[in-house]
Amino acid sequence: MIALIEFSLPGETLVHGPTPVVHVGHTARVARLLGDRLNVSPLSLQPQTTYPVDYEAVLRRAKLELTGQALPAIQPLSSTTLQAPIWFLGYPIWFGHVPRVIATLLTQVPTPPKVIYPFVTHEGSGLGQSMADLQRLCPTAVVQPGLPIRGSRVARAAPAVDHWLQSYFDQPSIQSKEI
Ligand SMILES: Cc1cc2nc3c(=O)[nH]c(=O)nc-3n(C[C@H](O)[C@H](O)[C@H](O)COP(=O)(O)O)c2cc1C
Question: Is 10 close to ligand 1, i.e. is its CB under 6 Å away?
């Protein structure tokens, strides 16, 4: 069993400088591509307190959360799904790191995942320091090489997604849960 979990913010987003409003966040769009290929429905991680639509306001709140190493409260996710040993986990890069709601999820989940396939959207930082973040937050997990997608190019992400997923499909031992 696998879990496909994403955190993603609709609203004002960064695209080549300007901040147009999007109704589906970039990371959520990558999650949909993955869901189609893995035949699972993405679960959307939501904070208890919704982030603002206004981009500058999101930056301010996210900066405070990062500086304070906060663990913002999150809405509960299906406990059955969270027991999956393999997680595809998606998030945007925030100031070079995982958003702090990802830290909340990984530190509070009763059964941490054994393998994490991280998929990331960003606007220039690539994976940033988020691979190290994940390993620190979930020391027992095998963190597989992440997939970085530039958010403003998400409409053309399918070939990169397929290429990256091959590393999962090429590991029958992981798929058969012999991990
Ligand atoms: C609070 C905040 C911090 C960000 N920090 C970075 C960053 O350090 N590096 C980067 O490349 N992009 C950064 N971005 C841009 C987002 O990673 C990028 O727009 C991403 O695709 C948004 O994904 P989403 O639509 O799924 O939320 C930041 C965006 C926000 C809102």
Answer: no
Cα(17)–Cα(42) distance, rounded to whole angstroms? 29
The dihedral of CA 46, 52, 56, 59: what is its sign?
negative
Number of domains in the chain: 1
- Protein residue with its CA nearest to atom 29 in ligand 1: 94
Mean pLDDT over residues 103-130, rounded?
97
Answer whether 0.90 is exceeded by the pTM: yes
Alpha-helical runs (H) found in 8-82: 26-38, 55-67, 79-82
* Structure confidence at residue 175 (pLDDT): 67
Instruction: Tell whether ligand 1 has an atom less than 6 A from the beta carbon of residue 8.
Output: yes
The atom number, within ligand 1, closest to the CA of 91 reads 26
The response to whether residue 145 sits with its C-beta less than 6 Å from ligand 1 reads no
CATH of the domain at 144: 3.40.50.360
Distance (Å, rounded) from C-alpha 161 to C-alpha 103? 24
